[in-house]
Write a structure and sequence with these properties.
The protein is mainly alpha-helical. It has helices at 2-29, 34-58, 65-88, 97-107, 110-141, 144-169, 174-202, 215-219, 226-238, 240-243, 253-256.
Length: 257
């Protein structure tokens, strides 16, 4: 029971944090787009189960690190794009009614909805198939009922995290919510990139150079090897480019009139 609960908590907490941060932003800025995030997460769960079955049939129950690496990199790219979009739409000088209306119109863009849905999908799918395999293996080794009970307790704890985050962000002003979500997505993009490097290291595609970091830094998620740490820091250093405001064409004579 304890093993099943810890596995689900470990693999699910990061996904819940990403989904809750996006849901907080969507719920305040464009509630009608909340369905896109929900459908994306549900699709990620369904895909995780399907892929876990395929792993069991064709790979003897072993997950494929290459699939996880590709998923991490795609998720990181989407998080950078979405985080940059949010930062560009949080005017540092003022948050006027006109800005709210402009942002509302931008949120109706199809690509924003697709990006949010894709992040929801990938946040769940990233470790979903592996989690299903772990739980299935535990169910085969132990009695199924304790495994299901442990998974249910972990799911309840994750749901509690979701409720706390959603309620805590409900009254935040929109501008801090936009900026906070964008910074969170930036950090998560760096983490996912480092995770992709670690997945490729497991396949010996990339070297592994261990480094001795303080336990406190490891506890907050910094990688324990030089290659993954460089990838993590590189994303943090280059990501602000995505946050720079885009140049708008100067209005022509007709527009000026």
């Amino acid at each position: 029971m304890l093993d099943a609960g810890l596995i689900l908590l470990r693999e699910g907490l990061e996904a819940v944090l990403v989904l809750a941060a996006l849901a907080a932003f969507i719920g305040r800025a464009a509630p009608e787009r909340g369905a896109a995030l929900g459908w994306g997460a549900a699709g990620g769960l369904g895909a995780s189960i399907v892929v876990a079955i395929l792993y069991a049939i064709f790979l003897g129950g072993e997950h494929d690190d290459r699939v996880e690496a590709a998923t991490c990199l795609l998720a990181a790219a989407l998080m950078l794009w979405t985080g940059g979009w949010l930062a560009r739409h949080a005017d540092p000088r003022a948050w006027s009614e006109a800005l709210k209306q402009r942002t509302g119109r931008a949120l109706e863009s199809r690509r924003v909805a697709l990006a949010v849905a894709a992040i929801g999908f990938l946040a769940v799918f990233r470790e979903g198939a592996e989690t299903v395999l772990f739980l299935a293996a535990l169910g085969a080794e132990q009695q199924p009922l304790p495994v299901l009970a442990g998974a249910a307790v972990a799911a309840a704890v994750l749901a509690g995290f979701w409720v706390v985050i959603r309620r805590g962000t409900r009254r935040l002003p929109l501008r801090p919510l936009f900026l906070g979500t964008s910074l969170f997505l930036l950090v998560m993009a760096a983490r996912f990139t480092a995770a992709a490097v670690q997945e490729m290291q497991e396949q010996a595609f990339i070297g592994f150079t261990p480094i001795d970091l303080p336990a406190a830094l490891l506890a907050i998620g910094l990688p324990d090897n030089a290659e993954a740490l460089v990838a993590f820091l590189l994303v943090l250093c280059l990501a602000p480019v995505a946050f720079l405001p885009r140049r708008r064409p100067a209005p022509g004579p007709a527009a000026a009139e």
